[in-house]
Amino acid sequence: MFRFTKAPTYLLLSALLSSSLPATASDANRLPEMGTTAASTLTIDKELEYGDAYMRILSASQPVINDPLLSDYVQSLGHKLVASADDVRTPFHFFLIQNPEINAFAFFGGYVAIHSGLFLHAKTESELASVMAHEIAHVTQRHLARKMEADAKKTPLSTAALIGSLLLTIAAPEAGIAAIHATTAANIQGHINFTRSNEKEADRIGIKTLAKAGFDAHAMPRFFGRLADQYRYTSKLPAMLLTHPLPESRVTDSRMRARNYPTVILPPSERYLLARSRIVARNANFSEASSLNWLNRELKKAAPNRRKELNYGKALVYLDNGKYKQAHQLLDPLLASEPNNLFFIDAATDLDLYQKQYDRAISRLTTALKGNPNSNVLRLNLANVYLESGKYQQSIQILNRYTYDHPKDTNGWTLLAKNYAKLGNRSGELAALGELLALRAQWDKAINNYTQAAQIAKLGSMDQARYDARIDQLRFERQRFKALQK
C-alpha cells in the first residue's frame, strides 16, 4: 500500500495522570456513582466539538499512521470492545500514532490513540485490547468532564483555569498542553483521590469490557505486571508509566479483579500478529537490518504454525528495500495458502507496483473486490494502482465514492489530488488539497484553495456551484472552531 510520511512534533495529549487505590474482590464489579455525569460542566455535544478540534490539531502535528490495513485493524478491534462496553454516549474513533514509546491515550469525543510502540510490547491481542479497554473506560465514564465538575464544586477559579487551558490548546497546542500541566500540578494535591479513583474505575470497567468482548481478562494484570517488572529499576520510564503509574498495589488490584472472570485460552490472533509484523517492518523506525533481526529472533521462538506472520514482515522489509526476489520467495507461498488475506493481497500489490506489473495487480484486486466489495483496503489499493498505471478516470471514480463515504480519511483526498494533478485539472486538485487542509484545522488555507478552484472552474458549472457551497460550509466550520477559543 502507498505510504505517506509526516514529520513528528512533540504535542502530546496524555491520559489522566494518576495512581491507584487498593481494591477488594467484593467491590471489583461495583459500578461508580455517576451523579450528574458532568452534564453541568460539559455537555456531550460540546465534548464532540472538542474531540473534533483536537483530532484536527493532532493530524497536523503528530505522525498519525494512515495505513488503511492498520487503521482497519485497530478500528475493528476497538469497536469489538465498544460493543461490549457500558455507558457508551459518543461514537468512538481509534487511530495509531507512529511513536516507539509504550503509550495510549483518550480524549473528548471518543478518540483513542495507540502508539505503534505498544505493539512491540503487547505479546497477545488480549494484552493490546486490555489497554484499549482501559482507555474506552476513561471515555465512557467521562473522567475529564467529571474532574472539571468536581473542581467547580470546590473552586470555580480552578475549573476556569482548566477550561481556559483546553481552549488555549485549540488555539496554540504546545502552549495549551503546558498550561494544562501547570494547572494540574498546581492543584494536584487537592485532586489526588479523585484521579486515583479514575484509574481504579478504568481498570475495573476495562477488565469487565475485556471479558464481555471475549478476551482474556487476565491479560491486563499480566501486561501491567510485565511492564512493572521490566522498568522497576530504571530511571527513565516509558510514557505509559508516566501517564498511567503502576505501583504494586495497582498490579495487585487488577489481578484480584481479573479473578472474578474465568481464564480464557485463545488461539493467537493472526490479524494481530500480521499487524505487529507490519509495524516492525514499516512503522518502528527500524533500519532494514534491525527489522530483520527483530523478525528473525521472533522466528526462532515461534511455533511452526505462527511463522507465516513473521515471514510476511520479512517480505515487507525486502520489498521496501528493493529486494524483490527475496520478497517474492516469501510472499508467493503466503498468498497461495490464503488468497483472500488482505495483508498478503496488499503486499503482493505493492510488489506488482514496484515491478510495474499493473495488469496483474488490477486483476488481483478486482477479483478480491468481488468477494469483499466494501473493503476500504482493496478500494484504496485499486485506486492507487489505477493512478500509477495512468488510468486516472477509473481511479477518480473510485475515490469520489470513497471520499463521500469517508470524508475524514486523508488517503482518499491525497490520491484524488494526485489524480487531478496528473490530468491537469487544477480546480479539482485544489479542492482535494483544500479538504486535507481542513482536516488539519488550516481553515483559511482550505477556504483559499476552494476560492481559487471556484475561480478556475467554468462559470455556472456544477463544479463551481459545488465549490461555492463548500466555501460556505468551511466558513461555518472555521467560525465554530474559533468559537472554542473564546
TrEMBL record:
Signal peptide interval: 1-25
Protein transport listed as a keyword: no
Database matches in Gene3D superfamilies: Metalloproteases ('zincins'), catalytic domain (3.30.2010.10), Tetratricopeptide repeat domain (1.25.40.10)
Organism: Photobacterium leiognathi
PANTHER family: METALLOENDOPEPTIDASE OMA1, METALLOENDOPEPTIDASE OMA1, MITOCHONDRIAL
EC number: 3.4.-.-
Sequence similarity: Belongs to the peptidase M48 family. BepA subfamily.
UniProt protein name: Putative beta-barrel assembly-enhancing protease
SUPFAM superfamilies: TPR-like
Annotated residues for binding of Zn(2+): H134, H138, E199
InterPro entries: Mito/Outer_Membr_Metalloprot (IPR051156), Peptidase_M48 (IPR001915), Protease_BepA (IPR030873), TPR-like_helical_dom_sf (IPR011990)
Job of this protein: Functions as both a chaperone and a metalloprotease. Maintains the integrity of the outer membrane by promoting either the assembly or the elimination of outer membrane proteins, depending on their folding state.
Keywords from the UniProt entry: Hydrolase, Metal-binding, Metalloprotease, Periplasm, Protease, Signal, Zinc
